[in-house]
Amino acid sequence: MVTSELSNHHNNNNSPMAKPTSRNKTSSVFLSDGCLFLGGAFSALILVWGFSSFTTQIPNDTPNFETLSPNDAASHHTPDFNFDPPGRTFYDDPQMGYTIDKKVRNWDEKREEWLKLHPSFAAGARERVLMVTGSQPAPCRNPIGDHLLLRFFRNKVDYCRLHGYDIFYNNALLHPKMFAYWAKYPVVRAAMMAHPEAEWIWWVDSDALFTDMEFKLPLERYKEHNLVVHGWAHLIHEKRSWTGLNAGVFLIRNCQWSLDFMDAWASMGPQTPNYEKWGQTLRSAFKDKFFPESDDQTGLAYLIAIEKEKWADRIYLESEYYFEGYWEEILGTFQNISRKYDEVEKGVRRLRRRHAEKVSESYGEMREECLKDAGYGKGSWRRPFITHFTGCQPCSGKYNAMYSADDCWNGMQKALNFADNQVMRKYGFLHADLLDNSVSPVPFDYPHP
């Protein structure tokens, strides 16, 4: 919902389409354990419905970009896409492969050497992010599924454009036996090889969308870690619950540690002869896992809990904001959040100022100063960062029986239009009703104080 001011303007539009209708941990608001565990249980029930969602010590080193010569990055302000010198790189090695079965060694050194040969990419290399997402190769069975996936993808493209991130969308099965939720790992692996200039690979499930288009990943918080996932340590280590995290959205550093970790993770997948055995092992370790198949989410929890000495120190379980949030918990907050943000803008004229989309980040930083008391996560009035429609299955249409079709489809429309308003306002339009896809022009100096 938006303010009555825009609704009135919308109703008088005479359109045939119109229809009335940088944070720190000490200051963050923590999510309620009880509510989170319940939300995790819901996610557990729905994960199996769809596509979603070791003894050698591994070095924790990441590429040392400080070794690049002082003139390398200083003389280049933007990447040069037309420059690829003839000097030999890992791409010229016939043994190098993009497939998940091809072992890669000394990846940190290979990335570093590539950046030395391509100095225009060295500036900002530590913060460079590539978003990766995708869907199945075939058309959706749900009659509106392809339309929904298009809107989910457009939402990700909007977010990446606003923040200068590259994005890769894949709809090919890169390994014939790695299906369902396992299909993303060969894609992430190939993306690392294809983008040595990117420090982070950010996987976001097709049924997840950005509902705060201004929020940026606090990368500085993760500087000592190589994998970031939404989760809660006590649910994994103490309660041994497979719903103590969600693997549908994760941020992984492009480094040797990550390649080795994904090798261990993928070794539990359906492409291996130990797939059934891993299913038994995971179910034995996590008593609340109720289905026999080995899945990526429980596999990740296993590596954190059981092989913690090897991996856990480099994995950040993010629980202080909606790194990804359960959609049923979020949908009912949109109206109050919109009202609160309007109140902020009524009191700060600069936030009401029209501006070019290219300078949007500066307005997000300005607004952040007004959100210090908003909190994070459940119970806050800050926009949720990512809303994840686990269990709704927009492509297949086989939503979990605990929901109704209207719950899922209307919920997606509301969330998509809530996010879309944050983009379309920069173009002079808004959805007056989140359940109505039509838009109306935004009055000057909106919202009027």
What fraction, in percent, of the residue positions are helical? Answer: 25-40%
Beginning-to-end CA distance, first to last residue = 18 Å
Number of helices: 16
Q: Which runs of at least 5 residues are low in confidence (pLDDT < 50)?
A: 7-59, 70-74
Strand content: 5-15%
Name the shape in a single word: globular
Largest sheet: 6 strands, mixed
N-to-C SSE string, H for helix and E for strand: HHHHEHEHEEEHEHHHHEEHHHHEHEE
Characterize the structure shown.
The strands form three sheets. Strands 2-1-3-6-5-7 form a six-stranded mixed β-sheet, sandwiched between helices. The model is unreliable at 7-59 and 70-74 (pLDDT under 50). The two termini are 18 Å apart. 42% of the residues are buried. 36% of the residues lie in helices and 10% in strands. The radius of gyration is 23 Å and the shape is globular. The chain has 16 helices and eleven strands. It is an alpha/beta fold and 449 residues long.
